[in-house]
């Protein structure tokens, strides 16, 4: 029962779909999702103050640096039917729609439960680590570097007096060696 069309182009052939007044673009799984996204993306008609307009840009572009670009998983990335084995077109469409809708709403529900607590814990951890880095680690490193200046001076003198002459003499001895490659 395959028609040779790709699953994204296949339309639902429900008998009374035109009678219900559903627009044609809504027949596909992508049409269902586009409508959900369009409803959520609609902006209010009235102008908001600058504080709200600043947060609106954050809401539109939630991953500006592309940190999670590898998480863009689509239905075709997970479930793919080869041309030799195909299910019914309606099964493919409904499973595609169910996958996309369940993925979207499960993510929203889980993020509703976890986003605020995880954000709070992450904020506290970053604050603690920043405080430790600024007030403990960097001052300790600076004290260490200031007090280790004499070690740097002594180590440089040891290198210049004992080790550098040995390697210079080895370099002069081995500097006259020439390697020539010849093919027979």
UniProtKB/TrEMBL annotation:
PROSITE patterns linked to this entry: CAVEOLIN (PS01210)
GO cellular component: caveola; focal adhesion; Golgi membrane; sarcolemma
Biased composition (Acidic residues): 39-48
Subcellular location: Cell membrane; Golgi apparatus membrane; Membrane, Caveola
GO biological process: caveola assembly; cell differentiation; regulation of cytosolic calcium ion concentration
Pfam families assigned to the protein according to its UniProt record, in alphabetical order: Caveolin
Keywords assigned: Cell membrane, Golgi apparatus, Membrane, Transmembrane, Transmembrane helix
Name of the protein: Caveolin
Family designation: Belongs to the caveolin family.
TM regions (residue ranges): 112-138, 150-167
Biased composition (Basic and acidic residues): 49-61
Gene that this sequence comes from: LOC106565578
Function statement: May act as a scaffolding protein within caveolar membranes. Interacts directly with G-protein alpha subunits and can functionally regulate their activity.
The keyword Cell membrane appears for this protein: yes
Region (Disordered): 1-26, 39-61
GO molecular function, one term: molecular adaptor activity
InterPro entries referenced in this protein's UniProt entry, alphabetically: Caveolin (IPR001612), Caveolin_CS (IPR018361)
Membrane topology listed for this record: Peripheral membrane protein
């Amino acid at each position: 029962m395959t028609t040779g069309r790709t699953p994204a182009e296949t339309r639902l052939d429900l008998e009374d779909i035109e009678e219900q007044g559903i627009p044609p673009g809504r027949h596909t799984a992508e049409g269902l999702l586009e409508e959900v996204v369009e409803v959520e993306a609609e902006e209010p008609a009235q102008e908001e103050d600058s504080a709200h307009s600043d947060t609106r840009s954050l809401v539109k572009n939630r991953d500006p640096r592309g940190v999670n670009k590898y998480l863009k998983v689509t239905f075709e990335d997970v479930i793919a039917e080869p041309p030799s084995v195909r299910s019914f077109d309606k099964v493919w469409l409904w499973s595609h729609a169910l996958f996309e809708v369940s993925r979207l709403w499960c993510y929203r529900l889980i993020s509703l439960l976890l986003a605020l607590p995880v954000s709070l814990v992450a904020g506290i951890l970053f604050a603690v680590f920043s405080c430790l880095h600024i007030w403990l680690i960097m001052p300790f490193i600076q004290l260490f570097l200031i007090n280790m200046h004499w070690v740097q001076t002594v180590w440089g003198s040891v290198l210049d007096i004992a080790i550098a002459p040995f390697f210079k003499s080895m370099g002069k001895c081995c500097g006259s060696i020439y390697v020539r490659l010849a093919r027979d």
